[in-house]
Amino acid sequence: MPEGEQMENYSICQLQRDMRYEGFLLVRSAEKRKDVKGNDYVDMNLTDRTGEINCKVWNWDPAAEVPEAGKAVKVRGTVQEYNGRLQLRIEKWREATGEDPVDMDRLVPCAPRKPEEMMQEIRDAVADIRSDALRRLTEGMLEEAGSVLNWFPAAQRMHHAERSGLLHHTTDMLKMARATLAVYPWLNRDLLLAGVIIHDLGKIDELKSDMAGNVTDYTRDGQLIGHLVRGITNLNRVADRLDIHGEPLVLLEHMLLSHHGESEYGSPKAPMFPEAEALHWIDMMDARMNTMKGAEDKTPEGAFSEKIFSLDRRIYHPKYTDDAE
Known about the structure:
alpha+beta; globular; disordered N terminus; five-stranded mixed β-barrel
């Protein structure tokens, strides 16, 4: 692409060094800083549904407000490379207005299905739980989560980091759970389905997200407690309200506590019964496949992605043809 060519309407994943870019992007984060000479500048991370790019606005007016996370902005600048990563040097920017032709579907990663459809799938699964205690506990946890579940993401940057990502993750895991039960019919069906539905609801307390599914940071609760432990305290509050105690509650508590599998990933206990082990691997499989799909979507065929932090490796996008060489 020749230097100086206008890049409006191109996606972040298509940007290359020395390209000129002008278009609308979404602010993930923005912070005012000082350079080595003491001058103000703003460091921003801007996103669209295909990716994220770091941006610098130099010679910042100290009296100017820093753009808020979740806002759409129009920017103009040049794509540069710094420490092996692309960076956008912004020459001009402004917040988008109601008069601008901003297509939020291009800016915000969204789950592939409507939240109402996914929510109904979950409610149908809850209604199909035969154990009275497990069904009521699961219903109570969904009530605690409330309407934010319709748009809440499942992560800040890793798997299902998208609008309605938590529903996307949960419904895909329900499908995997049913397939697992077909292979291992001796598993307790009610316990596994209940564990799948409630295992990540604590993320609502863990992440700071706007209604676009844009996570700006972890909450104080997320930093100090985390969604595994917070999920258990929420479950105990529901259990006390419903006066449900005993074995079903303890089993669900253990599934929440152990679903990351090992202490390296935050679980102080490894799964200690089959349904807990199944939940861990279903969760791991769905998270990793979603991460790989996202990396593949942003990588041209026949090329390798950048290193994926959560997988600790690069991903190859196969051509899937005999003449791949």
